[in-house]
Each structure stands twice: as C-alpha cells, then as structure tokens.
C-alpha cells in the first residue's frame, strides 16, 4: 500500500494500530519524502477475510490521502538498495532485460519502449506505467541514475580468472605492445597460427604486428598474465552498420582454460555498446572451436559454408557468463 500522511508524530503508528486490530501484519516499510508530507509504502499480510477495500478504509480513517494498493511481489520484502543492485546486475549481464530491471526498480506495472502518453513517464527510450500509485520524484531520480549507470562506458581494464584460478587482465592493445604480441605469436604452434591466419607462417611480419595493434577500422583487446600477452582478440567494422568481424588468438598453453570464452564475451560486450547486432568470424571448414567458445561465453552461434570457409555468425546479446569454470569441461577454446 502507498498513502500520504501528514509528517507528524504518531500518524503512522495510528495506521498500524488500525491494521493490527484487523489482524494484519506489516512486513516492510519505506518512507519517501514528498512535498507537504511523507509517502509511506507498507507491505501487509492481510488477516483472514480482510479485503483490499477494508485496508484502504483503515488508512483513510487515520488521515491517509491518495491511497494506492496492489498485490506485493517477493522483491518488496527486500530492502531498496539490495533490490536496485540486483536489478542492475540483471541489466548489465543481460541488456535485453533492461526494461524488466527498470520495472523492478520503479515497482511499475509495465516498462516498454516507445513514447509516453499522459499517464506514463518517459525515461530515455523507455516508458514506465503504474496505475495503482503515482511515481514520486525520488523514484524517478533513482530510475534515471540507474539508467545512467547502465550507459556508463565499460572500463578499459577488466579482470578474469582462468578455469584453474589464474588471474588475468583484459585491456586494449597499444603500440608499445609490439614486442609482447610478437612473443605471443612465437609461442603459438603452427596449427594455432594456421587456424587464425589461414596461412603457414612461423614469424609475423612487423607490419602485421602494427596492424594488429592499430587496426584502421576496429579495436584490439589483449589478455595479459604477468608481463606476457597470452591472447589477442579483434573487433573490426565491416562497413555494414550492424555487423562486425571478430578474430581470436589464444596461446596453446592457455587453450581449454576459459581464456577464449572470456575474451569473446568481452568483445561481444564492446560490440553491444557499439550497436552491432551480429559478429562474424571466418574459420577453416573443420575448425569448430569458435562455436564451442561462443557456447561457453553464453552466445548463440550459427554456421554456414561460404567461399570455401566456415562463416560463424554470433549474436552479441546472450545469457550472462558467470565463470569459465561453469562451462562444460573439456571444451577446446581458442
């Protein structure tokens, strides 16, 4: 229930006494400042035979104004900061659930995309509606801060743990990484290099190293352990507005340890932020490791033969990736 009361001693106590007389138990209470008084929100377990209209009458009998009532959800028994943090985690790990997360933050009846009408509230590209009680300015301010948090740029440094508990750092590649990237390629087997570049090579030409670290139409992400770069991923604009090309290279000693899945998940996150709806990679026909890596990263992938290669299409939006160890053991990651 929500209702406005005068901000005076004993006002809320008198309401709870009335509810107790009707064998109703107050389970949770929030007090929200509003102009001219306070707005009280209470979660009540109604006594046997008590109707919603009886509860409304009890509140109004003690001076309550603008009384609204609706069926409570389990989240209403959780303190507000905890509920908002859980909603933020939901939206950050699965952007497709942003509207549902905002609905929980606002305790709204519905949150949809579009333009607001007279009885709705516009928040960015989303519209919130609640029929049983008006939104307060405190709630709208909280919702706006929530959306600003979701829109904040991803940090340039990201940490991860391999399947066997080794700490690694994911970061953008820079020109000073040429020696480290050359060392990465020197430690890779001929097979790993062939699967990445589709050509036999033992050493990488210097101009290739420079292009890897400073791609003209994209970005490069490195995975570092100590002073060594152990994996490299690229996200390249293809010229198609909603499509980007990706590639991964993981040192042999770090394959099957969750590194490729974490790197692919990071590239997918960057792709979502850039507005891409599809990631494309080109693999040798018999090379299916990237499809398994996408599955470990929680990303849907489809394949088709094209121009003698395997075209892997990955949707950058997928279920949340918890830890690499949660994936099926024994999969090969590159």
TrEMBL record:
Alphabetic keyword roster: Acyltransferase, Transferase
Ranges where the ACT domain occurs: 1-74
Coiled coil regions, renumbered to chain: none
Entry keyword annotation includes Transferase: yes
Domain N-acetyltransferase: 168-319
Pfam families hit by this protein: Acetyltransf_1 (PF00583)
GO terms of molecular function: acyltransferase activity, transferring groups other than amino-acyl groups
Protein name in the entry: Acetyltransferase (GNAT) family protein
Source organism: Lentzea jiangxiensis
């Amino acid at each position: 229930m929500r209702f406005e009361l005068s901000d005076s001693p004993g006002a809320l106590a008198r309401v709870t006494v009335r509810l107790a007389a009707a064998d109703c138990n107050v389970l949770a209470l929030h007090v929200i400042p509003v102009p001219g008084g306070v707005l009280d929100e209470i979660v009540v377990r109604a006594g046997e035979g008590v109707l919603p209209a009886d509860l409304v009458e009890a509140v109004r009998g003690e001076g309550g104004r603008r009384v609204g009532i609706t069926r409570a959800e389990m989240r209403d028994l959780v303190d507000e900061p905890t509920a908002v943090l859980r909603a933020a985690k939901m939206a950050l790990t699965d952007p497709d659930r942003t509207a549902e997360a905002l609905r929980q933050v606002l305790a709204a009846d519905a949150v949809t995309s579009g333009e607001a009408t007279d009885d709705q509230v516009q928040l960015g590209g989303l519209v919130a509606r609640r029929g049983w009680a008006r939104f307060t300015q405190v709630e709208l301010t909280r919702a706006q801060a929530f959306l600003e948090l979701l829109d904040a740029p991803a940090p340039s440094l990201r940490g991860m743990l391999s399947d066997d508990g080794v700490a690694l750092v994911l970061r953008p590649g820079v020109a000073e990484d040429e020696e480290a990237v050359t060392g990465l390629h020197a430690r890779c087997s001929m097979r790993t290099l062939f699967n990445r570049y589709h050509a036999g090579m033992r050493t990488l030409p210097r101009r290739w190293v420079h292009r890897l670290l400073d791609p003209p139409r994209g970005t490069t992400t490195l995975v570092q352990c100590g002073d060594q770069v152990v994996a490299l991923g690229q996200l390249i604009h293809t010229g198609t507005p909603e499509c980007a090309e990706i590639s991964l290279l993981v040192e042999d000693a770090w394959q099957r340890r969750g590194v490729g899945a974490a790197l692919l998940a990071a590239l997918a996150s960057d792709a979502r932020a850039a507005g891409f709806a599809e990631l494309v990679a080109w693999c040798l026909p018999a090379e299916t490791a990237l499809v398994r890596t996408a599955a470990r990263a929680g990303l849907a992938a489809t394949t088709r033969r094209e121009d003698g290669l395997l075209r892997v299409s990955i949707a950058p939006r997928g279920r949340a990736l918890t830890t690499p160890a949660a994936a099926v053991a024994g999969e090969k990651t590159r």
